[in-house]
Amino acid sequence: MDGRDFKLGTSKKVYAAHAFPLPGHAVGLTLQDVTERAMAAEVLRRQALHDGLTGLPNRTLLNDRLRQALQHAEVSGEPVALLMMDLDQFKEVNDALGHDHGDRLLIEMSRRLQGVLRDVDTIARLGGDEFAVLMTFGASEQGAIGVAQRIREALERPFRLGGISVQTSASIGIALAPQHGTDAETLAQRADVAMYTAKRGGGGIAMYAPEHDQSSIRRLALLGELRRAIDDDELVLHYQPVVDLRTGEVRSAEALVRWQHPEFGLMPPGEFIELAEVSGTIHALTRWVLEHAVRQAQSWAGAGLDLSVAVNLSVRNLYDPDLVPWLSDLLTTTGLAADRLQLEITESELMDDPLLAMEVLGRIKALGSTTSIDDFGTGYSSLAYLKNLPIDQLKIDRSFVGTMARDESDLTIVRSTIDLSHNLGLLVVAEGVEDRTALGMLADLGCDRAQGYVVSRPVPADDLERWLRDPAARGDLQTQLRSSLAADDLPPSSVTR
Ligand code: C2E
Ligand code: CA
Ligand code: CA
To answer: What is the 3-state secondary structure (H, E, C) of 2-37?
Structure first.
């Protein structure tokens, strides 16, 4: 006969009873203390529903409670709010400080989060640095926004980890039932969409709105695909030449990534770089770009073209401790001379973490490669940092270059950036040079190099090589430059420089 577990009286003990027949219509009964086994089962049940690290409810339990809450809401008419949140810099903390500190941060965060929520709300850890909050009683739109604000405030206070103070921030998306959805899946998906909107907008908090959906669903789909696209070589590089304003020679080419998407066609980086940054795929993307650009430069060198290649880094790449050693191996394997590779990082990204940037750029320079600050003029870098940064080159942002012929203050910015660069011993490049007037003005101002549509749009490597080898095209460029340099409104000095 089967045994059965039951509790006896009020004691916390759990017993298993076994009944068995004895001769003469008697029944024998044994009781076995199975308290430990029962407790182990309870622990397993708890484990199945809670996150091992923080002890918070996990996705399964959250979904259970969400379903219950939605069923209840259908009867009571009480709104339900679901908040999805994602830490903005968790990956960096993890990479820079190690997993132990990353774990401690998550535990500490969970404590703070519990502190700002009511007991009736459920906070769950969905995995990684993703958390969700389920609000049931009194979950108005205002209430949900208020909770989101309190969460952000709680996370903004610095955390102490291993003697270092770490600041975090979270992007939070909110979806409400019944207005945004009445079933658990829809609500979760819409809170996710809102979370991406929050992340993208930089405002930190976003309430779901149907108009987010079109772009966000495409973005979410892309996010899932990007990783595969990299492995499947769906990315392509176009190269834009950078020309020496004194000689008209092309000195380098900037590698600009595109995604040859099977459905959407050739997509510009603006549509997926940020997605790659948010999702961490930027590490694989940057390596892909570096590998292809370095091999391209090596092939140019082999073909007798004296051309270096520039590659863009994202600030997230600076947090990747393996990048520089990996790059060093890449240069060794391909045999490309390190000084044929230039790395660019935008001024604003650099200023996100100037000390780290200084260290990583220093290590890149130690390899023998050169470094540039991209989009200069948009990021408020302090002169004190600039002076100490291990950089070789400044690239003036195209927003100033494009308008300097019409806008006096932009012209002043361009002029002073050129002077500043030279005073700091840096080479200066103007970006976004679209016409001959601008080209001539830049040469006159003493700018060293120029990049822009007037020279060439970014083109596939083969086209660039053909263009470089085509005397007519090259001649045209020289003529173009010479005629710019000789333009009427320029003093003769610019012609002879
Ligand atoms: P960026 O590094 O400032 O690159 C220059 C951008 O200006 C390119 O846009 C280029 O096509 C555009 N451009 C060039 N000349 C002109 C001009 O005369 N006028 C105007 N209006 N625009 C011009 P693109 O290729 O769409 O790239 C946009 C941005 O995406 C890049 O800006 C860069 O920040 C980022 N990006 C591109 N490739 C990569 C990459 O491999 N890694 C990372 N992290 N970012 C990349
Ligand atoms: Ca660039
Ligand atoms: Ca730029």
So the answer is: CCEEEECCCCCCEEEEEEEEECCCEEEEEEEECHHH
Query: What count of other Cβ atoms lies within 10 Å of the Cβ of residue 394?
Result: 27
Compute the distance from residue 148 Cα to the ligand 3 centre, in Å.
Answer: 35
Mean pLDDT score of the chain, rounded to an integer?
86
Return d(Cα 404, Cα 415) in angstroms, integer. Answer: 10
Neighbouring residues of 87: CB distance < 8 A, sequence distance ≥ 6: 109, 129, 155, 168, 169, 170
Whether pLDDT at 42 is above 80 = no
How remote is the CA of residue 222 from the centroid of ligand 1, in Å? Answer: 20
The first and second tokens of residue 266, run together, are 């050739």
Residue nearest to atom 25 of ligand 1 (CA): 256
pLDDT one-digit tens code per residue, 44-98: 666 678 888 899 999 889 999 999 999 998 888 889 999 999 888 787 777 777 7
**Which of 3.10.150.10, 3.40.50.300, 3.40.50.970, 3.30.70.270 would CATH assign to domain 52-210?**
3.30.70.270
Q: Thinking of the domain 220-489, which architecture would CATH place it in? A: Alpha-Beta Barrel (3.20)
